[in-house]
Specification:
- With 260 residues, the chain is of the alpha/beta class.
- The chain folds into two domains: 1-81 and 174-260, Rossmann fold (3-Layer(aba) Sandwich), CATH 3.40.50.300; 90-173, no CATH class.
- The chain is 39% helix and 24% strand.
- The chain is built from ten helices and ten strands.
- It has helices spanning 44-51, 74-80, 97-106, 111-119, 123-141, 158-170, 188-204, 217-223, 241-246, 248-253, and strands spanning 4-15, 18-29, 33-37, 59-64, 67-68, 82-84, 176-180, 209-213, 226-231, 234-239.
- The strands form two sheets. It has a six-stranded mixed beta sheet with strand order 6-7-8-3-9-10, sandwiched between helices. A four-stranded antiparallel beta sheet has the order 2-1-4-5, with helices on one face.
- α7 links the parallel β7 and β8 (209-213).
- The chain is globular and about 55 Å long.
- The two termini are 33 Å apart.
- The model has no long low-confidence stretch (mean pLDDT 88).
- Bound molecules: adenosine-5'-diphosphate and magnesium ion.
- The site of adenosine-5'-diphosphate has 11 residues, from β2 and α1.
Length: 260
């Protein structure tokens, strides 16, 4: 098994009578790309929410880079190097592309750090540096996006908005990137493009681990090293794409295939 970056063990989350996660174990190795699949309501987003300090588990433990992060709030988790995108785009469409990217950056800085930058008269310098970082990141995704830093995010196409959202997650140079259905609302061609972008990012940052929630099995097959299938908050099975897609329980629960 690859060097552990993240280890979730026995994670359980309940919402009233619903067991959103039910004793889930999941291991993510350094640099690994995991495809997380499962029917609607199987706990995929709850898993991300639990890792990132938005939801606290009733039971179980999460260690990340050797540290127990189970009870840490979102801001602290982000500082340690876990970044995410949301199932519904969370860009502020009236704000510029740059401002949206900076929302990712600012969240990671303490007020004290900001006060220090301003006091030293370094704000302009710091902003210029950040514009450069933002341009460099956007360049992974598209040749034209870096020139659109000052335009409102709302003027971008759906795929470019997604790209900005993924860049916002990457701006703090995370160790683990969690992508919650990034292809939602996109055409199959756009999805393919976005996955190619993701592969360019991985080529530049081989140590970056990614967990990708995705319904399209072709997408999962093309980008992930390992697949994990959830059902009712539990791990139904895991393995390579071909192992998982041959599993009778997966074919029944996820692909809707009756017993042959
Ligand atoms: P998925 O992302 O796999 O579609 P979710 O993690 O969103 O699944 O949901 C898992 C289960 O938990 C569902 O039954 C859902 O209705 C329930 N659930 C998720 N979040 C909440 C919440 N904040 N309050 C109540 N129930 C929730
Ligand atoms: Mg979801």
């Amino acid at each position: 098994m690859s060097t552990a970056l993240l280890d979730a063990t026995g994670l359980s989350v309940r919402f009233g009578g619903v067991r959103a996660l039910d004793g889930l174990d999941l291991h993510v190795g350094e640099g690994e790309v995991i495809g997380l699949i499962g029917p609607n309501g199987s706990g995929k987003t709850t898993f991300f929410n639990t890792l990132t300090g938005f939801v606290f588990p009733a039971d179980g433990r999460v260690t990340f880079a050797g540290e127990d992060i189970t009870a840490l709030p979102a801001r602290e988790v982000a500082k340690r190097g876990i970044a995410r995108t949301f199932q519904r785009l969370r860009l502020l469409l009236e704000l510029s592309v740059f401002d949206n990217l900076m929302l990712g950056q600012h969240l990671s800085l303490d007020h004290g750090v900001w006060a220090n930058i301003v006091a030293r008269g370094g704000l302009r310098r710091s902003l210029e540096k950040q514009r450069e970082t933002a341009r460099a990141l956007l360049r992974y995704f598209s040749d034209s996006l870096p020139d659109r830093l000052s335009e409102p995010a709302g003027s971008l196409t759906m795929i470019d908005r997604r790209r900005v959202e993924v860049c916002r997650a990457l701006i703090r140079d995370p160790k683990l990137l969690l992508l919650d259905e990034p292809s939602a609302g996109m055409t199959p061609d756009e999805t393919r493009e976005l996955m190619q972008d993701l592969q360019s990012v991985k080529a530049e940052r081989p140590a970056l681990a990614v967990v990708l929630i995705e319904h399209d099995m072709e997408v999962i097959e093309s980008v992930s090293h390992r697949c994990v299938v959830l059902d009712y908050g539990r791990k139904l099975c895991e393995g390579s794409y071909s192992e998982v897609s041959q599993d009778p329980a997966v074919r029944r629960a996820y692909l809707g295939v009756e017993d042959e």
